[in-house]
Known about the structure:
mainly beta
Amino acid sequence: ANTGTRLATTTVSNTGNSPIDVALSGTGVGTIAVGNQHYATSTFNYAACSVCGFLSGAATHAGLSVPKVTASTTPSTSNIYWGIAIPIPTASGIQSGTNYFEAGAP
C-alpha cells in the first residue's frame, strides 16, 4: 500500500542572503527500504509520479530553489512533499529511520 495523494510536507526555510537548494538522503524505515520514500517539489500521486525523486543513502539535490531573504524578519520558504509505500506484509509496530537535509547552492 502507498500514500497515494495523502502526502507529508516538509517546509524548508531560508534566513540567509543567498538562495538555497537541499540535498536529501536517508535510511530505511525499519524494515521498509529507503527507496520506498518518494519526494517532489509539488504534490503528486505516489502510484503515478513522473517527477518524484527516490530517497537513497546518497545525498541528492531536490531541485528546490528557496530564494534569499528579502525582508530581515521573514524567511523565504518552499515545500518538499513526501510519500511512502509500505510493502505487504510488513509487521505492525514502530518503524523508524532518519532523513537528512543539507543546504547548498541551487
